Amino acid sequence: MEVCFTMEMENDLDFEDYFPSMVERLGAEGFLMELCHGFHLLMDVEKGLITFESLKRNTLLLGLQEMRDDEIVCMLREGDLDGDGALSQMEFCVLMFRLSPGLLSGSDDGWDMLE
Asked: Where do transmembrane segments lie in this chain (predicted)?
């Protein structure tokens, strides 16, 4: 059963949580590979991180071209665990899991869906 979650942002963007159905279709390893591909699409190639500049450059790709700079900064802060102002691949993956309540619902430890 797919759980859908819609998160509305200030500029009326919707986010639907398709991660649970992706895990079912791709399996755990395939899903993690897709997250890694997503990270590589968004990262600054020279720094190996998702930076403000790389995320801003990719807003069109994400369909978020109307995002304000302060909203982009907020997105980065949400996942920035080490305080460097950018997202490493690990930080990006952790953020994606945190933003997907469907992956964590119905499980005791939140990771059984990926086993």
From this structure: none
